[in-house]
Design brief:
By secondary structure, the chain is an all-alpha fold. Helices cover about 80% and strands about 0% of the residues. Helix 3 runs antiparallel to helix 4, helix 5 packs antiparallel against helix 6 and helix 6 packs antiparallel against helix 7. It is globular.
Length: about 170
Amino acid sequence: YYHAIKKFDSARYFYTTYLTERDKMGLLSTGRKISTLSNIADTYLQEGNTKKSLQYLQQIRDMANNPEQKKYLAFYMSFIDLQTANAFYQQKKYAESIAILDTALVSLSRTGSHLRNEVVQAYDTYASCYEALGNYKKALEYKNIYVKLNDSLTRRDKIDIISRLEIRNRIAEK
């Protein structure tokens, strides 16, 4: 809730409390820990505090050093790379951002089809990086991909909303 309304200090407080309490009870799964740390990193990214964001993303990377976890964490690591690329873009490290996006999107495609906001946003980051580097042809190419994917994502979201409303209406009629 606090994350969505951009009350980032409150969001981080509750994320940190969640991690601490679940860990104490022995109920903190690897996936939950990663997603919560990723959410904390995202709050810092949205504030433009890339240094702090990268610290949390590194914590997640450190978890992936366990060989037993590597395959299981492939999706998460690709997702974290998308966030890292965004942080590098904000730091004006455009070439580094592009290099990370190149590998992250290939790795992510190996884990299945993912039309998510973060993937769509990656193409906007690509376009912005290429534009900043003066490669306007590539910038336009990636901006077009971004627009196409964003339209698909928006259309999918609208269909989901309509479906939920139809279900609620049917239930209300009974």
